[in-house]
Write a structure and sequence with these properties.
The chain is 5% helix and 35% strand. It is mainly beta. The radius of gyration is 16 Å and the shape is globular.
Length: 156
């Protein structure tokens, strides 16, 4: 899967798009765990940015900080962040996320399937995707998964 960065000007953060190659699923999942620094070259940081696609970040363990919109959220076990297209994610320092572990998933509207009429706008009207409708510079929506509903993290 290829990610494309668009930077309109110096006054607005860059926006990232997902561009799946032919035959590839229009989604990406990844494990959020140790090794954040290696993902961001030698700087250990990642720029303030937005996405033009929806995403979810679930944290099994807490520790660290997530900057989104005008807020800095302390990450706690069971946090689920709903990231709408256009949500501005703050400047990320690898050390902010060093203790946080979980899963992330990002997807395009095409993930709903080719038979969904107007798939590119379907995320705005689909009942399961409704939390993504509120996007913009306000930042991600933070939800809490109740402890009995959290997956077993397994051995440490």
């Amino acid at each position: 899967m290829r990610t494309v960065r668009k930077a309109p000007n110096r006054d607005r953060p860059a926006t990232y798009s997902i561009r799946p190659t032919p035959g590839e699923l229009p989604m990406a999942t990844w494990r959020l765990e140790h090794g954040w620094e290696s993902d961001w070259e030698s700087t250990g940081t990642f720029e303030e940015h937005a996405h033009d696609f929806p995403g979810l970040a679930y944290f099994q363990t807490g520790g660290g900080l997530l900057r989104t919109g005008r807020r800095a959220w302390p990450i706690e076990a069971g946090d689920l962040f709903v990231i709408a297209p256009g949500d501005v994610m703050g400047h990320v320092h690898a050390t902010d996320l060093a203790q946080a572990h979980g899963w992330g998933v990002f997807f395009t509207a095409d993930a709903l399937g080719p038979d969904v009429p107007g798939a590119h706008l379907a995320w705005r009207t689909h009942p399961l995707l409704f939390p993504f409708v509120r996007g913009g510079a306000i930042g991600a929506l933070r939800l809490r998964v109740p402890e009995p509903d959290r997956p077993d993290p397994g051995p440490s």
